Amino acid sequence: MAHDVHTHVKSNIEFEYARRRAANEMRGQVTTFAIMIFLTLIAFTMVLAGFSAYLVIPFILLLAAIQVVLQLYYFMHMSHKGHETASLFLYSGALIAAITVLTFLTIVWW
Amino acid sequence: MDLNTKYTPHSWPDHPESATLEGKNKFLGFWLFLGGETVLFASLFATYLALKNRGPSGMEFTTQELFELPLVFIMTMLLLTSSLTSVYAMYHMKNYNFKAMQAWLAVTVLLGAAFLGFEIYEFYHYVHLGFTYDQSAFSSAFFTLVGTHGLHVLIGLGWITLLMLRNTKRGFNLYNAPKFYVASLYWHFIDVVWVFIFTVVYLMGVIG
Amino acid sequence: MSSIAQKKGFGATLWDYLTTVDHKKIAILYLITGGFFFIVGGIEAMLIRIQLLKPDNDFVAAGLYNEIITMHGTTMIFLAAMPLLFGFMNAAVPLQIGARDVAFPFLNSLGFWMFFFGGIFLNLSWFLGGAPDAGWTSYASLAISSPGHGIDFYALGLQISGGGTLIAGINFLVTIINMRAPGMTYMRMPLFTWTTFVASALILFAFPPLTVGLFLMIFDRMFGANFFDHTMGGNTIIWEHLFWIFGHPEVYILILPAFGIFSEIFSTFSRKRLFGYSAMVFATVLIGFLGFMVWAHHMFTTGMGATANAIFAVATMAIAVPTGVKIFNWLLTMWGGSIKFTTPMLYAVGFIPSFVAGGVTGVMQASAPLDYQLHDSYFIVAHFHYVIVGGVVLGLLAGLHYYWPLMFNTMLNEAMGKITFWLFFLGFHLTFFIQHFLGLLGMPRRVFTYGEDQGWDLFNAISSYGAIFMAAGVIVLVVNIVMTIAKNVPVGRDPWGDGRTLEWAIPQPVPFYNFKQIPLVRGLDTYWIEKQEGNVEGMTYAEPIGDIHMPNNSIIPFIMSLGLFVGAFGALYNGEQPWAIPVLGLGLIITFAAMATRSLKDDLGYHIHKEDLLNEKGGKH
User: Fold this and answer.
1) What pTM does this model have?
2) Distance CA B112, CA C333 (A)
3) ipTM score assigned to the predicted complex
4) Using the beta-carbon criterion (under 8 Å), do B133 and C212 form an inter-chain contact?
5) A chain contacts of residue B36, beta-carbon cutoff 8 Å
6) What angle do CA B154, B31, C514 make, to 5 degrees?
7) What are C207-222's pLDDT values in tens digits?
């Protein structure tokens, strides 16, 4: 049964390779973090700069969406394989979430 | 699964969180739960947006007068950073470095606690101004949305702390690795929600 | 750990059921509790029909009548239909996919106990100052101004049992995705497993909006919030949307598993492969998807505007297409089959015209202009009883007879089963068909009485007499169950003789570890394939006999749910009793302490050793 775990002892070369790969990925994560901070700064600056609301609102929503995608795909590893079912359900949830918000912005007052 | 199996950095699997069937189930079940949480928070956001700035006639509170961006900016930085530190923790779990993982989790918890402290201060400040929970539909919706997020932070803090304490002495095994992993997923999800809160509630609130 | 059965005393049996994490025992718990609430809801229905038997009746007062209709709807949907379906899912799905248990046995138990305590809490309202009286939909404008604690019981009770449902949904999703036996590909899963899968996905996304809606209601009524109070800027339409974003998928959560049960029955007793299997799967998924896009058709008369009404009207009508696909597939499954009219098959055949009638009136209401005429009339009552009773309840009764031998290793009496069917089926049509016309004659729903001069006397009397037939049918069923339990004649494996799917291939009584060896699935209707090839074992095995890992029993789910039950009383009496907040705190402490215990204490389960398995004969428990 699947609860038997097959232990694989890595050779030194495999081990070094895995370590290097993990370290590389971690460097990528730090870059992701820097981008996220940068996006946040832009969003706050745009609001404080006092541009037209019609420009700022779509723009900061876009920035938020990008930031969430980074968070999901890099920090939460959704870009790795084995996340197909997880993404199917997350996107279904996001679709229903979007419809719910849309409803409450349009047809909730009478 | 056997808790007594001793691993070395060489024999520790690449994906300890999903090396067992229990781990795989936990991993998938938690992602599904997050799908449900997405809809939960969407319902709260939707309610907030429908009731934003609505109150009894002559209500003096609006988002523009109430919110202070510097405080929100600090809170955002704290939570974003805590997301990175929990990535570090998972990196060290992968590398079978228990001490380093615990250290990064501790940093994560401290950052989260600081965030929560600021949020409590913020709420206290609003209540002090007279913007109480029962003041208006707007106040109810605001405190419920942001407060639900705050409750998630609190639960996350308790969860991660408990995990750290429970496993201090025994290090990694394939029983606790999935637990650490899903706790970190939860923590990232809290950050995802916050990104929308600071954008939709605070930034768009200040714009009006 | 020995797996040889011993005779146990009552206390030991009770403890066993309180702590069990075995999906087969949890199925029995769901069946008993759901059956109990089905009887309670049925009694409430009878009270309604007695009150409406004649004009100007004073059998119950107007206020009490409101409480009865509210509790009838709420009980039947949340505390009877859903748990009974969960009972059959628990009993059959893990066996159908060749799994030894569900993915989260502990959570399975937690889900049941949360449902249990939520249901008890809701029904305690009868004894503690009055039941909820704002209808099962509990529209905020009514609910906020309802005096007493009825609505509070509703909101808190459903919150607790809804949490249990969400947990159960996630559990089934993970079970079906991760725990399938080798060879059990998605497109080989029996239809009941497929419908369970889609219904669970609907639960995952539909229950969070209900959770939010109920919390808003709780905060408004007990903690001073103003979500629904328009004088404070609130908006009652928010509740309607949240409720129906949940409520419409909810009816598919109920009907899809019933479709699954019927699909199994049709192919079993037509002794034919299900016609159009892949179209059936596709239709199930499509119904699940469309089910989320149509909720506002319950709110056409709210005043959402012509554009919104048009969009939701078209989306609603679209659902008739995949449902029609299913109806035709069932008919074509029977076509040319060697049909055996057992009790479950009678229900299945009776279901088709009944459900089609309910579907047709549904499409009528989807037309928004017509809905303005039909809204809140008895036409609506007739429609949803045709889909819920004609679809879900017939499915549950069919499932009860069909899966009874799987769950208890005995067979319900077929003759009495058929009597139950005819009484119930005729009574059902007698009760509800006439209500279409009552609606067209202008009788509004939820009125506690009507005048002699309104011309509704005869039809109401017919409807009430029909209800007596339904009640008689249920009484025969109860007698049948009691007699079957008393006689206790074991029937063994594949009692219907025509089982097609894996659950019938297991020796009876089902060993507590389900499969001594995990089977290898070789196609759709795998047991049928093995039988055709003369395999007396009924299965091809995917592994040699080895140690089996089993989860430990635990009382923690019971205590966790008990804590929520206690805490709910604190929330309910907030601001009224000095002990309210301490009790709320105490309840939450019990729950969180139980959760902490769960995470601090390792639960690694245990192993049944290979030697013990080899010693046993025929997998006896």
Assistant:
1) 0.95
2) 59
3) 0.94
4) no
5) 93
6) 115
7) 999 999 999 999 999 8
